[in-house]
Amino acid sequence: MATRTPEGYPHAPRARRYRGRMSPASSSTRAGAGGLAALALLHAAWAAGSSWPLPSRAELADAVIGREGGEVPSPAACMLVAALLAAAAALVGAGPSPRSRLRLLAARAVVGTLSLRAAAGLAGHTELLSPGSCSPRFRELDRRLYAPLCAALAVLSLPAASRRPAPFCGARCMR
Prior knowledge:
Blueprint: H1 13-17, H2 24-47, H3 57-65, H4 75-93, H5 101-123, H6 136-157
Helix pairs in contact: 2-4, 2-6, 3-6, 5-6
């Protein structure tokens, strides 16, 4: 009887190489999932009425939403974003799935969305994705913090969006 490795393939060289410790792809997806989960919790806190890390909701609207003197989004909108971020964290944390096309497509959508948000922020055109996001404070934070964070999360989530082929194991797989 063939022995099974952690990845489920008999005698897979890639799986044996990382026996007892996480592979770089696993570390990456777990870090990306952790970042997305932290952002989900932050959005849930904002839905509950918190203004953390800023002292007031008005400053939160200016720094995070880009509306100087405006209102923050409704609690329902914040919870929707929190739920989407939590789903993205679960999807990315599950890692790559060569067998599930839907999960692969969803992971690719997460990476694509984060990449698009990063590109728009770095180019200074976030208002195209989120109309009204044009306060000077938001633009500065967007270029220095939000867009690079989205780019980093996209890169960390990338292994979950790739279809890794099964390693070749010759006739041993046919037993």
